[in-house]
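User: I've been going back and forth on whether these two constructs are worth ordering. Before I decide, could you fold them both?

Assistant: Sure. I'll take them in the order you sent them. The first construct and its structure tokens:
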Amino acid sequence: QVQLVESGGGLVQTGGSLRLSCAASGRTFSTYAMGWFRQIPGKEREFVAAIDTRGRSTNYADSVKGRFTISRDNAKNTVYLQMTSLKPEDTAVYYCAVASPRWLIGVPTELGEYDYWGQGTQVTVSS
């Protein structure tokens, strides 16, 4: 079992920045790839970014590439999502997730490859 707690969401103006954090407990954090997804009411949850176990490989959705940065601190059992140049279309609930243990190498981007999810944190970007 694993528990994930996201924080750092809020209201920001277009062009602003936010940093989301996701604190994990209950598993050996450093042995699992991690990801961030987001969801708007009425739409499917979509991939945003992911990072491998050591933080050496990352993957991003095209919509956030160049603006968002995912990172992790295995000593603190925490994964981060630094978001810059925010746009109104980035408004969503953001979720962090733990990847399936078979992803010892690589960076999964599919929803089904993630086993555990946080409760989500709301990000609202005003125009």
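The second construct, handled the same way:
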Amino acid sequence: QVQLVESGGGLVQAGGSLRLSCAASGLTFSTHAMGWFRQAPGKEREFVAAIDRSGGSTYYADSVKGRFTISRDNAKNTVYLQMNSLKPEDTAVYYCAARLTRYTSTWYLRANDYNYWGQGTQVTVSS
């Protein structure tokens, strides 16, 4: 059974930092591209960042580029999202997602591209 478990969310002041983690089990982690999405109250789920299965290629939404960094440790079956210079508009539930792929240097931007999802972790940024 595939499980993705996010952690690291919380309450932080604007300008602060958080590091989210997503631990995967029940799958061969190194064959999966990973992504982070977020959903704010009353809004649709939106793409945040993606990383290919090797960790060598990443892609970011314009709204987080230069502030957030996605990375992965295939030995630990974990993907991370380092979030710096947080803004109140970053407040949302953050989800990690996994997509089986045979391709390296390939990441996915649409939620429908992903096979598995975590339950989410709440990030709240106060002004």
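Notes on the second construct follow. The CA atoms of residues 10 and 123 lie 5 Å apart. The mean pLDDT is 97.
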